[in-house]
Amino acid sequence: MAISKEAYKVLESIVGSEYISADPTICEGYRSGPGGYESGLGYERVMTRIPGCVIMPRTTEETQKIVKACNRYKIPYVPYSTGFYGPRSHPHVSDALLIDLKRMDDFEIDDKHLYAVVGSGVIYSQLQEEAMKRGLYIVIGGGGSQVSAIANMLGDGWSPLSYRVGLPHRRILGTELILPDGELVRLGSLALQDDYSWSEGPGPDLRGLLRGFTGHRGFLGIVTKMAIKLLPFQPERLVPSGISPHTSLQLPVNRVRWINFTMPSKDAMRQAMVEMANTEIGAGITKVPIFWRVIARAKSKEEFWELWSKETEETIKNFHVLRVLLIGFTSEEQLEYEERVLMDIIAPLGGEARRTRPTDESWFKNADSAGMWLMCGGYVSVDYVIETLEHSIPHGENYAKLKRNYTPPLMPDYGDPGWFQSFELGHQGYSEFLVYWDPDENTDGVDQFYLETSKENIRKRFYTSLLGSHQPLYLTGPAYGPNYHKWLLKIKDEFDPQFICHPPVPLNHDVFVERAKWLHPQKDWKSPELPKLS
Amino acid sequence: MPKSKVSLDVTKIENFIFDMSMCIKCKGCTWVDHIYMPGMKYSTRCPSATKYLFDSYGAYGKMRIGVALVEGRLDYSDELLKILYACTLCGACDVGCKRNLDLEIELTLEALRIKAVKDGKGPMPEHKKIAQKIAKQHNFFGSPHANRKKWLTKEIKPSPKADVLYFVGCSASYTHPEIARATAKILNASGTPFMLLPDEWCCGNTLYSVGMIDEAQKLAKRNIEAVKKTGAKTLLTSCAEGYRMWKVDYPKILNMSTDDLGFKVVHLTEYVDELVKKGTLKLAKRIDLRLTYHDPCSLSRLSEPWVPWKGERGLWGVVSPPLERRRGTNGIYQPPRDVLQSIPGVKLVEMPRMRENAFCCGAGRGTKEAFPDFASWAAEQRLVEAKEVSAEAIVSACPWCKDNFTKVASNNGGNLKVLDFSELVLSSIGSTGKRR
Fold it and tell me: pTM above 0.90?
């Protein structure tokens, strides 16, 4: 235990002996890998460490005291809610204190003003069920139902349902944040009084700082409470049915309906998305990635590969399935009206409605992102870009082309051009590119592809949402800033002068490239002297 | 990736390195299936992770610790043994993982315990005492072997020879004779001739569960042989743990299929369900009771039959020949519910966590003996849940569940009744259990 006895005693006095441990077995249980997001990749192997100590606070006050003690004793610390987000949510330096926030599960719901106040340990499916009991709903991000709602709201947090309700940034209301030095800051209306209901408050809005575009993975403090905006749903309950693994929500078809359409082309899908947005119909929309379809059909990993091996470049190229969610929020008539409008949009584009089961397995309450690992055991989204619909299609196609150079070790996908969809009633287009590999193979090529996507974005002038914590800051900062990297580091210095809150983020990827020799041939940008880490 | 040989043999931890290495920390093992997520309360199904909180006590932690142990990066310690044994092996993690990933979590946990015993570190001291009692008196409690059939009353008349053999088990034989009596009377009432083993011994559930594979194998062989000698076609149990041992773990540790046992293994709940549906057994007597049913883990998600498998694992982790995974889907969930609902006056209400999402009572598989506080805590969680749905009684189908629930319920002074399935069925037939 590298944390001094004195520091340990101080920490223990804050939470009690039951909720702190430096036992090597306990700490081993918090290892990032070998499985998980980015499993087996260089980043996980080179950058992660098991914690030197784990502590589980119950309240904001306890967490604040822990952070202050870390500052006093210069203990690097990492906030950790569920640990699902792979290596980037685990310690990167030896002997760090991992602050496991699962006991912070306070929950309040205000169904009159449509928000819930959640602690860091509350996960999405818990929140969704409480909302739905009251005729409300939230969007469960693609990260999955099992992730901390706060962490996901601060990081990614979108799904096909973001088409109607917008991106998560807009649904963060009053928030309680412990800065890296232990100062407690209340954001939004919470800054004025005990009122979580509103997002804006006096002074600068730190939400942008907290989240950036896709989050900074806990290097600017710890959010201990957040009010999340809830939205009115329709009145009928979605009834769970089936026995694991075949469980689903039965949809009240008079109010909620998924419809799949076979479309003649990607462009027809894009046009349908635009027209739906123009007519303001629909509650959710997405292009169906063919992987999902095969995963859903397969009863096992072996069956997946059997089915997948029947695909060809041609079938993938011609696979254009559009999945649309209609909800009669206000009435059954609303759903009927929207369905008629939708059919009027789809027909001239040459689309055909397919039979679609009256169930939901993946988006309302389950969001089973875990299924992404079934095929190969290794998975990561190398990029997710929110720009325009026009932008999102070539972005994916471009990546598909690039990916051929790295297949294998990447899974053969017959040129699949990724996943795109419409957000915020068509005002934004989304492109996500998921890659898969066998973690037991040599994965250097996956690391190289990951890095190359960033360079490709810069070359082709694609926007990227994975900046600081996911790509080298000194590669992306000058390209997108031009001084984004300098600002980010200045902010970090200001709030975390001792550089102890999840070091070395946001320079983590720069350090990684420095350490990963197999990436050196790709390094054609200048880096400053990087921090020396244990 | 070169192909590697792999099997489901739990005596070799090497078979499960893939499963331990592929855990992604989605914690599907701990949370209730999200489709069924009941909200902020009752949201977890893993007693160990819920009680001890550190990730190391969830299956995700245990998988990582297992890899470290195998790779020699971690040594045995009191904490490590507690992590391995303060776990009910209830299978909740296994069905949760197989919702998405199909990793063999339950087998891995069993294999880790077997490894701990082989390494001379396991089981816990309390388990060793039980093993001595079983060796000496052939029962879990160390009671005189001669008393095994003391539960028999004058009115119960087993046949010397019958197609159905009732394997009573240690708990119903010694500490919960009311379950053995009720079962026998139900069989009598249905006109089912049944026999008992001339010399019944412990099924070895605890031995196997704590990793004492050699002792468990000896008992398995001895017991199977004893049943075969009787010529029974069906072995019936009223104990869920015993049911799992006979149906799943005996074949598992003897490298055979359930189908090859030479007789069929059924639980009382299945048997009664069939009798009621055929009309052979009438549950006519009214019982005005609002009750909830607790799924015993070993009857529900852990009860699918065993088929040995060995083969190869290659690229992407794909195995050949195809492996039919046991995901808990075909456990015994509906039969007990159908029977209970067919009793006039009974109002069956479900707890938020039910079927494959049920929260273990905490008693089974060596947990209560080594970690009694944990076992009581788990039972308390379940009893609170039963009260939440305003149940007047909690009904299970295993004497170990009943025992744990009863002790905790009586300590807490609550008025929730704890009943076994057999007792309720017998009451609905009529207390004497005479054939109608």
Answer: yes
